[in-house]
Amino acid sequence: MKTIKDLGELTGKRVLVRADFNVPLDGTTITDDGRIRAALPTINALREAGAKVILMAHLGRPKGKVVPELSLAPVAKRLGELIDANVALAKDTYGEDAQAKVAAMNSGDAVMLENVRFNPEETSKDAAERSAYAKKIAQLADAFVSDGFGVVHRAQGSNCAIAEFLPSAAGLLVEKEVNALSKATQNPERPLTVVLGGSKVSDKLGVIENLLDKADRLVIGGGMVFTFLKAQGCEVGTSLLEEDMIDTVRKYIETAKNNNVEIVLPTDIVVNAAFPAADAVIAPETVSADAIPADKMGLDIGPESQKLFHDKIVDSKTVVWNGPMGVFEVAQFADGTRAVAQGLVDASKNGAFSIVGGGDSASAVRNLGFDENGFSHISTGGGASLEFLEGKELPGLKVLD
What is the pTM of this model? Predict the structure, then answer.
């Protein structure tokens, strides 16, 4: 994979950078600037090298239309604060205003193009359309740097097609992500423990299949665990259940046994009468995992399981975590996710290499108040990290070969 060093001398060169600035907003206020901060090493390195840095990103899903509420203006403002420099925002992606702002740049300047998803061609299924669109953006620059790991699993205009027209390389963030995830999947230090949570087994099918002959241990929690429990003959009450996945899960359990891969399931579950909506009555109780009442819903792993999961994680040299253990946004159902996060921190202290696989897991780490430095790596791309773990070829990385 080509890196920034392969681009040669950059002084005075115009460098297009595809970043992942899809940050959460409350109106025009950014509530978590983690993705912006993650892009700073690449942006600063290019500025220090004398490049003119032209930033591209998307925000939300405007579906090819101009949606003022999804303008990158708040991102440009926050980035300017972080790099202590003005970051001008173009009114378009490749039109007159973008051309004028780029023409006015000096070495070390940064300009941001407006939300690339305001253009329908960005996410078009037609490769020729994406290519023609990307060519227009490419005319603004001399080189392209892909630094939005959160979008490398998508074949889109600003992260794939643009590499057809410019010398291209991975940014420092993409390079870091690939190195970290490769360390966990290619000759990892063992034991290798993979912790999977989230709502559905079907969301993690590829990961489970790919890891059943690579991991030493799979620790299963979250909503997906109830399909595993059902596959073992347990009743799960009104808990989330994928009936059509039960036979598949049984095969996974059998394959794991044959491959000497340990599958760790919770022994107790925190249940409630219903999902905790805003006006719902919350009266959690802990029950055995094989005795969930018919009228109750499992929403977290119980105290006994929290210790079990924590200890299994600490007994690892490499650990990858993707997906919360429960409804962590509600305090009464956050302890399982907290225990897993603490397990990764404690494993790291013991010398293990720990990865938080982006998405809800990364959000949980921040929301629960953990120091990000307590983990070896927190991925910025939930979907991309999952597909990497599945062993899929990611189009946004392939174009950088």
Answer: 0.89
